[in-house]
Amino acid sequence: MKKLLYFLAPFLAVMVAIFFTYQWMHGLENPGYVIIGMGHWSLEKTLVDFTMQLVIGFFILYILFRLLGWLYRIPGQLKRRGINIKFNRSQEALIAGLVDSAEGNFERAENVLIKHAPHSGAPLIHYLSAARAAQARGALDKRDEYLQQAANKAPDSSVAIGLTQAELHLSGKEFEQALTTLTQLHSIDPAHAGVLKLLHQTYQHLGDWEGIQNLIPSLHKNKVLMEAEVKLLEAEVFCELLKQTAEQGDVEKIESLWAEVPKYIKNMHGVLTVYFTVMFNVGAGAKIENELTKTLSLNWDENLLKLYGDIPSNDVEKQLKMAELWLQFHPENALLLTVLGKLSSKCKDVEKAKIYLTQSITAKPTVQAYQLLGDLMSEQGDKDSANQCYKLGLELVLMAA
User: Fold this and answer.
1) Residue 226, exposed/middle/buried by CB under 10 A (0-12, 13-18, 19+)?
2) How many other CB atoms sit within 10 Å of the CB of residue 302?
3) Cys-Cys with 340: which of 217, 316, 351, 356 at CB 3.0–4.6 Å?
C-alpha cells in the first residue's frame, strides 16, 4: 500500500502541474511548437501537446517496465516464500521433536526431526537431537547414520558433533569408542572444557588412572574442576595407582610411587591408610612399622591401629610397649585393648592377653575379641570356656547379619 502511495503522489502532482502549465501556455498568443523530421517524414506539434504527450508516455513506459519487473520477480518471490514456509515448518518440527523426545516418544521425535532437517536453519540440531532419540530407543545404526549426516551437513562443527557422539558412547557404556573420539577431539582443541570433562569420566570408567593423572594439569589450568576438587582427584588417583601397583607385588614400585606423592596429598585423610595397607598386603609390613607408629602417635586412627596389630614386627615386645603407652590416652578403646591382647599373646604372656581381651569385651563385645580369647582358652585346655567364647562370637555375627 505504501509503495502505491509513493507512486500515485508524484504522478498526481505532475499531472496537476501539467494541467496548470497547459492552461497557462494556451493563454499565450504564441504557445510555441515542436517539429520532428526524419527523411521525408515530419511531425509538427504545439509545445503544450508535445510536452503533455511526452510526460504521459513516460509514465506509461514507467508503469510498463515496473509491471515487467514485477512479473520477472514473481518466480523468485514464490521460491523464497516456499523456502520460508519450509523453514517455519522445520522450526515447528524441531520444537515438536524435542518435546516428543522429552516425553519418551523417541521414534516419532526421530522421524519428525529428520524429515524437516534439510529445510532448517539449524540442521545440526535436528541431526544431533535425532541421534539422541535413536540412542534412547536402542537404534545404534541409525544413531551413527544421523551423526554422519550431521558431519556432512556441518563440517565446521566437528567438536560439537564429536562431543555428542562421545556422550552417547558413554551413556551406552561404549567406553573404548568414546575414548577414541575424545582423544581425537583433544588433539584438535586441547583446552576444550567439555572434551576434558568427558575424558576424565571415560578414564574413570576404564580405570585408567595414569590417564587421569596426565589429565589433571589440564583440568586445573582450564578450570574444569575447582582447586579443592583437583586435590581430591589427585588423592584418589594416587590411591588407585598404589592399589594397582600392589597387585603386581612389587614393593620397590610402591615405594617409588609413594615418593612421587606430594606432601599435601600424603597428609590427606585416608591416603596414608591406603599406603600402609598395600605395603602390608605385599608382605612389607615391617618396612612401615616405624612410620605407622609415628602416624598413630600424632593422629589416632582405628583403621591404622588394626593394621598395627597385624604387622609382623621384628620386635613384638617394643610394639606391645608402644601400644600400652597409647592406652594411657585411650583407656576404654575396645579395639586398642584387642590389639594389646593379640600382641601379648604373640609375646607368650597369656595371662596379660586374657586380661586385655576380657577388658575389650567389657568395653565393647566384638567377634575378633571373642575369637582371640576362645583360642587362648583352647590352647590352655579350657574347652568349655573356649566354646562359650566361640558361641558368643557367633551370636554377634548372626545379629549383624
Assistant:
1) exposed
2) 14
3) 356
Statement to judge: residues 297 and 325 lie in one domain: no
Tell me how far apart the alpha carbons of residues 181 and 169 are, in angstroms, rounded to a whole number.
9
- H or E element that contains 209: helix 209-221
Distance between CA atoms of 341 and 155, rounded to whole angstroms? 73
Instruction: Mark whether 282 and 357 lie in a shared domain.
Output: no
Could you give phi then psi for residue 133, rounded to 5 degrees?
A: -65, -40
The x, y and z cell numbers of residue 297, run together, are: 602417635
CA 274, CA 279: separation in Å to the nearest integer? 9
Within 8 A by CB and 6+ apart from 359, the residues are 337
- Three-class SS of residue 33? strand
Rg of the chain over CA atoms, in angstroms? 46
- 124-162 pLDDT, tens digit per residue, is 777 888 888 888 888 888 888 888 888 888 888 888 899
Domain containing residue 322: 315-401
Percent of the chain scored above 90 by pLDDT?
36
Would you put residue 138 in left (φ > 0), alpha (ψ -120 to 50) or beta? left
Would you give the end-to-end CA distance of the chain in angstroms?
A: 88
CA distance 317 to 297: 17
Confirm whether 11 is domain-assigned: no
Return the SS3 of 151.
helix
In the numeric block, the cell 589433571 is attached to 216
What is the helix (H) or strand (E) element at residue 37, kind and residue range?
Answer: strand 33-38
- Helix and strand counts by DSSP (H, E) for the chain: 20, 2
Note the pLDDT tens digit of each residue in 316-330. 999 999 999 999 999
Domain count, the chain: 3
- H/E run at residue 45: strand 41-46
Answer yes or no: is 326 within a domain: yes
Measured CA to CA, the distance from residue 125 to residue 90 in angstroms comes to 11
- Shared domain for 401 and 333, answered yes or no, is yes
Map grid coordinates 540440531 to a residue: 125
Query: 43 - beta bridge partners?
Result: 36
The model's pTM: 0.67
Which of 132, 150, 168 is a domain's end point?
150
Cell of 118: 534439510
Q: Report yes or no: 293 and 308 within 8 Å, Cβ to Cβ.
A: yes
CATH number assigned to the domain comprising residue 126: 1.25.40
The per-residue pLDDT for 317 is 92
